[in-house]
Design brief:
115 residues; alpha+beta; 28% helix; 28% strand
């Protein structure tokens, strides 16, 4: 079993960078919102923002051998939730919610919440 989810970082012309969680899909929108909030000064610096998002995901389990992963390109891992961060448009999408948010709008909608 598990609560599998992926945060997909996309930039035009580049393969996607995917952060996998085995147990944290339910909370991914809140985790991503907190990372975007904390990383606001790095919204235009993809490499730093990517690291900030992954750090937010693993902050309570940084030394574990399992539970999280990083993949380039298409990823599945039988995940039920995807949160897609588009660096070019500064937008976020969540698979089962038919809406696209700006970074600021996503923070307002999901920071400190569980979906």
């Amino acid at each position: 079993m598990g609560d599998r989810g992926i945060v997909k970082m996309v930039s035009e012309g580049q393969p996607s960078l995917n952060f996998y969680t085995h147990w944290g899909a339910t909370d991914l929108p809140a985790v991503v919102a907190e990372a975007l909030k904390r990383g606001k000064g790095r919204w235009n610096d993809e490499s730093y923002l990517n690291r900030i998002v992954f750090s937010e995901m693993i902050q309570d389990d940084v030394l574990s051998e399992t539970g999280y992963g990083i993949m380039v390109g298409d990823a599945d891992y039988d995940a039920w939730r995807y949160v897609t961060i588009n660096h070019d448009t500064k937008t976020v999408e969540v698979t089962e919610i038919d809406k696209v948010w700006s970074f600021d709008g996503f923070i307002t909608a999901f920071a400190n919440e569980t979906v």
